[in-house]
Description:
The chain has helices at about 10-40, 50-85, 90-125, 130-145, 145-160, 165-190, 195-215, 230-240, 245-265, 270-300, 300-310, 315-345, 355-365, 370-385, 390-415, 420-460. By secondary structure, it is an all-alpha fold. It has one domain. Helix 9 (about 245-265) runs antiparallel to helix 10. The chain is globular and about 80 Å long. The relative contact order is 0.13. Belongs to the multi antimicrobial extrusion (MATE) (TC 2.A.66.1) family. MepA subfamily. It is a multi-pass membrane protein.
Amino acid sequence: MRRENNLGTDSMAGLVVRLAIPAMLAQFINVLYSIVDRIFIGNIPEIGATALAGVGICGPIVTLITSFSMWVGIGGSPLMSIKMGENDRKGASQIMANCFLMMIVMAVVITLLVILFKQPLLMLFGASEVTFPYANTYMTIYAAGSIFAILSMGMNTFIICQGYSKIAMMSVVVGAITNIVLDPVFIFGCNMGVAGAAVATVIAQMVSCAFVLLFLFGRRPPVRITFGGYNRTLMFRVLLTGLSPFIIVALDSGLIIAMNMVLQHYGGPGYGDQLVTCNTIAQSFFLMVTLPMGGMTGATQPILGFNYGACQMDRVRSGQKYTLILCLIFTAVMMVVAHVFSSYFVRLFTNDAFYMELSMKAIKIMTLMILPLAVQYTIVDGFTGLSAVKYSIVLSTFRKLLYFAAMMIFPLLFGIENVFFAEPAVDLISAGVSVLVYLKCMSGILRRREEKVALELRKSAA
């Protein structure tokens, strides 16, 4: 069966566009999972703002849960792409089999841990006595169905890396549509409130999971889900390769949690909950920048990995160039949207003047330096796509530590409402550091691969 895209021979510009755009759209739709929930919750009569703050506390924990699927999915898919570039179908199939098992085990363990420790976690991560009941309700239901989220998101990367970008996008679309349709039914029609939003999300993730698994167990993809061939060394290599994107997403979640804790600490009773509500709205918009951009850079990783495995280094460099151009265009558009149309976005959540003013201010501040952020994403995910994980891990960790430090210092120097300036300051600095590392190290990475392949060819000829 012919694939949608040939990663080794198709025009690089067209290939990047055909893989990155569907992935970007899929992640835009994926953002709707959380945003639509929050929009409907924010409009629940009388309790909307308080319930929104409670669900906002759950948001980074939910992202943290799904980041484990990224750990395995993005860890395994570049390795699988390299194997496919080497024309090693058996090795590619073994990688997928190991990753599928790892995701199932991770999902079960994570579900049990979250259910057991959710109460102290929610209180530690910024819930107040007022917002805790809403956070607890949402988290309990979501955790019970988290296996579907982990499998659908994680295994979807193995659809993308085989060139089926449209199928991967459709798996997200069917879940998002299901969620959008069911949210008002459960929240308002069945009068379930926050619980209804969580139930709708879990059902939507079940639908996405079924779509992904039916495709990967079917006859269409060249590499399908199989069982057996489990190998600890291979599993460790997958975890090492995926460590950087996992750290990015996990620490992003941790930083949002830390932000909520900072807002509660400096805001105090009452005002702290209001600040958390505004941060929830602003972070919802920022997800519309980071998740689609991560979708683009993640979708082009198989292109880089395949051509790296095939030792076509000119195509690797070309793929990185076109990925960066696409990300810069996207972030430029989103910057305009943030500064011109943010009021329309905020009104979806609330019409309260206080919440609107502070949320719009936060959105405009946080998006000031998303153009440099595009450079950071392209470079870090490019290193991951080539399995050069030590560079991506260092760059990712540096940015998160810098952001955490800025988040702690800015409220002391400039006041709590100016804590949002930590984001653009860190985006600019970390992008500069990433460029320096790229210029110093990338040529050496590609040259060593060429030398290794040349040596193997000489040995086989001898």
